[in-house]
Amino acid sequence: MSALKIKKGSTSHSAYNLRPTFSDVEERHTLAVLVENEPGVLARVIGLFSGRGYNIESLTVAEVDHTGHLSRITIVTVGTPQVIEQIKAQLGRIVSVHEVHDLTVEGPSVERELAMFKVAGQGDKRVEALRLADIFRANVVDSTLESFVFEITGAPDKIDAFADLMRPLGLVEVARTGVAALPRGD
Questions:
Q1: Which of 60, 57, 55 has its CA nearest to residue 33?
Q2: What are the Cα distances from residue 121, in Å, to 79, 124, 146, 148, 175?
Q3: Fewer CB near the terminus (10 Å): N or C of the chain?
Q4: In the Cβ-directed half-sphere of 117, how many Cα atoms lie within 13 Å?
């Protein structure tokens, strides 16, 4: 019979350590929450976040099943793995919530966002804004002699990069939809 030797104070390699270990590094997670489409559900979900001091980076809501009266809430939040697990567990306890999926850990997913940028400028700055818009595949949806409104879709990082490049060219205003996400594959 062999004995298992464990250093005193070390439990990470113990056969009896069944608790998951969590790091204290904050991670960005995208949560897809299927809820009943009824008054007050969104307020309860948001109240869970605000009541516990959790931050929401992005929030989108839309009805996805008219006959079943179901809506999908996509939430992007940041927290330690332990906080993310708490958020998912607490969301799952809300009566009107049918499903909670953490797209970040469940496998590959696709995230997209739509944004509109108003950029004011003349001369070379105007030409450069159009050139960059072409590179980023942004569409001009409004144009005056003083400004453009660009429409762009893509991953949030792409939207951020476009905003960073437009700031010195005369970025006036930004409107973003928030993240919409779906798992890849089956």
A1: 60
A2: 39, 8, 6, 8, 19
A3: N
A4: 27
Count Cβ neighbours within 10 Å for each residue of 142-176 and write b for 16 or more, e otherwise.
eeeeebbbbebebebebbeebeebbeebbbeeeeb
Domains defined along the chain, listed by start: 27-102 (3.30.70.260), 110-183 (3.30.70.1150)
Q: Residue 124, CB half-sphere, CA atoms under 13 Å: how many?
A: 1
Identify whether the C-beta of residue 62 lies closer than 8 Å to the C-beta of residue 71.
Answer: yes
Mean pLDDT in residue range 115-138: 96
Closest CA to 57 of 81, 74, 38: 74
Residue 98 structure tokens = 């049918």
Q: What is the pLDDT of residue 11?
A: 44
Cα–Cα dist 26/80, whole Å: 4
CB 148, CB 122: distance < 8 Å:
no
> Of 2-16, 80-94, 96-110, 160-174, which range is least confident?
2-16
Crossing angle for the helix pair 124-135 and 156-170, to the nearest 10 degrees: 170
Cα 147 to Cα 120: distance, rounded to the nearest angstrom:
4
Measured between its terminal Cα atoms, the distance across the chain in Å is 47
Amino acid at 35: V
